[in-house]
Amino acid sequence: METTLAGIGQALMLLLGLAVFFALVFAGVLVVLRYTARKKEASVRERYPTARQIGRASFFGQESRGVAQMRGNGTLILTDSDLIFELWVPNTEFRIPLRSIQSLENPTSFLGKSRFTPLLKVVYTNAQGATDAMAWQVPDLSGWMHQINGART
Description:
By secondary structure, this protein is an alpha+beta fold. It is built from 2 helices and 9 strands; from the N terminus they run αβββββββββα. The strands form 2 sheets. Strands 4-3-2-1-9-8-5 form a 7-stranded antiparallel beta sheet, sandwiched between helices. A two-stranded antiparallel sheet has the order 6-7. The protein is elongated, with a radius of gyration of 21 Å.
């Protein structure tokens, strides 16, 4: 009986140790991501000092590239002429001229992915003359919609 209790106690201690380890790893990753986000955003502010709006965004993809593509976090930038997205990893830039934007939409999913919250979807005409779209999850969706619509007029 005692050996069974000792075994259970050891298993519980092992599980507790693993839980603490993973919590510390997760916290470390969050700290690194926040530091990276602040650094990237500061760099963008230096390069685009007259930007109308700059903010963090979670990229859901580009419609023409289909479902098998890199998605992730980055910085969304609105200038007087372009909507620019800089994906952090890999370091990739997407640029949509404001004059090519056809519409703004707010679906809750894009390319089969959802976080059950409205997204900023930009439908535009690409350089080849075809309709394409990109979508992001942004913290201030109504603010982005207002700013983009204001810049387009």
